[in-house]
Amino acid sequence: MKTCLVTGGAGFIGSNFIRYTLKKHKDIQIINLDRLTYAGNLENLKEIENDLCYTFIRADICDREAVCRLFDAHDIDTVVHFAAESHVDRSISDPCEFIRTNVLGTAALLDAARRAWEKNGRYKPGKLFLHVSTDEVYGSLGETGYFTEETPLAPRSPYSASKAASDMMALAYFHTYGFPVLITRCSNNYGPYQFPEKLIPLMINNMLEGRPLPVYGDGKNIRDWLYVEDHCLAIDLAIQNGRIGQVYNIGGHNEKQNIEIVRLIIAALRDLLPSRDKRREHVDDSLIRFVEDRKGHDRRYAIDSSKTMRELGWVPETGFEEGIRYTIQWYLGNDEWLKHVTSGEYTSYYQKMYGKRGNAK
Ligand code: NAD
Ligand code: TYD
Asked: pLDDT value at position 361?
C-alpha cells in the first residue's frame, strides 16, 4: 500500500486527480493537505469523502512545522504538489500572495520531504515528489512554434513568475541534493469542478445568469486546452514511468482563440438547454463584451508534448468537442454546486463536515 500526499486536493485539478486515483488504484492511501483558500472546496470531494483510503488535513504548505509533523506521522511515498495560487488576474492585483504560497510554500514542502526521505546522504527507495507546473513558465509565443521542455523559462505574469521560481527550486533540489523530483508542465485545463473565475466556467455561469461575457482585448489570444482527466492520466503515468530530474510537457494540441471558445460555448449551451428553458432566450452573441485587455496578456500558448507521449506512453483520450459538451452538461447538472460556489456557501462545508477541530481523521 503506497501513501500519496496530494497538496491542494480541494481545488479543481487536485480534486479531479484524487477521484481519478481512488477509482484507478486500489492499493493507495491519499492524504489531501489543503489550506482551503477561496479556491479550495471540499464539496468537490463529496463523492469520496468517506472512502477509507482518503484523509483530509487542513494546513498551509507554508507552515513548516505542520508539514514536517505530517511527514513524521506518515510514511509518505509520493507527493503530488498542486497547491498554489492559480489565477493570473488575481496575481496581477495581489502578487505577494503568489510568492508566499507558490514559492515559499513549495520550498517548505520540498525541504520537509527531503528531511523525511534522506538517510546518510541517500533517499529511501520508491520516493517521488511530483511538482505540478504550467506551460505559462515559458512565456508567450508568436503566431508559430511550440513550447518544448528545452524552451527557456520566460514568465511574464506574477503567477507564471512564481511558478517558474518554484520549478527552479524543485530542479535545484535534484541537482544539489539528488532529491527525487520531477516536474510536469501542463497547458490550460477545463472540466468539472473548475472555479468560475477561469474563462470556461466563468462564461458558462455568466451565460446561465444572462450576464455579459467579458472578453479581454480583441479575444484573439490563444490557449491550448486539455480536458482535466487527461492531465490526471499524464500525472499518473509520470508517477509510474517518469524519470527523476526531468520535465514533462502536457498538452492536447488544441489551440483556440478565446473568442472561439466563447462562441463554441454559446452554441453548445443553446443546443443543450431544453427549448422551454427560459435561460435559452438570452444565450447568444449579444452578451459578448470586448473589455479592457489584461495587463501583460500573453498572446499564445501551444505545447509540444511529444516527450511525454514517447517516454510515458501518454495519449489524451478526450477530444475538445466531447470534453466541452460534457463539461457544460456537468455544470447544468450541478447547479447546487455552482450556486454554493457563487454565493460563498461552500466555505461552510468544512465546518459542517469536520467541526472546529479541523482534521478529518
Ligand atoms: P485551484 O486554484 O483550483 O486550486 C488550488 C488549491 O490549492 C485550492 O484547493 C487551495 O485551497 C489550495 N491552496 C492554495 N494555497 C494553499 C496553501 N498555502 N497551502 C495549502 N493549500 C493551498 O488550482 P488548479 O487550477 O486546480 O491548479 C492546480 C495546480 O495545477 C497549480 O499548481 C497550477 O499552477 C497548476 N496548473 C493549473 C492549470 C489550470 O489550467 N488550472 C494548468 C497547468 C497547471
Ligand atoms: P484564464 O482562464 O484566466 O487562464 P490563463 O490566464 O491561465 O490562461 O484565461 C484564459 C484566457 O481567457 C486568457 O487569455 C484570458 C482570457 N479571459 C477573458 O477573455 N475573459 C475572462 O473573463 C477571463 C477570466 C479570461
From this structure: 41
CA of 119 to the centre of ligand 2 (A): 45
- Give the Cα separation of 318 and 190 in Å (integer): 11
Phi, psi (5° rounding) for residue 28? -140, 140
For residue 91 and ligand 1, the question of a CB distance below 6 A is answered with: no
Shortest-distance atom of ligand 2 to CA 301: 8
**CB 189 less than 6 A from any atom of ligand 1:** yes
**Residue nearest ligand 1's atom 42 by CA:** 188
Q: Which of 177, 7, 181, 194 is CA-nearest to residue 101? A: 7
Segments making up each domain of the chain, as ranges: 2-191+227-253+300-318
Mean of the per-residue pLDDT values for the chain? 96
pLDDT in tens, 175-216: 999 999 999 999 999 999 999 999 999 999 999 999 999 999
Nearest CA to ligand 2 atom 12: 199
- For β-strands 226-227 and 189-190, DSSP reports them as parallel
CATH T-level assignment (fold) for domain 2-191+227-253+300-318: Rossmann fold (3.40.50)
Ligand number nearest to the C-alpha of 45:
1
Closest CA to 21 of 80, 73, 85: 80
**Which ranges of the chain would DSSP assign to H, the alpha helix?**
12-24, 64-73, 88-93, 95-98, 106-117, 158-177, 199-209, 228-241, 258-272, 306-312, 320-333, 335-343, 349-354
Beta bridge partners of 256: 223
State the residue for C-alpha cell 490557449: 223
Nearest atom within ligand 1 for CA of residue 198: 41
Catalytic machinery residues: 135-136, 159
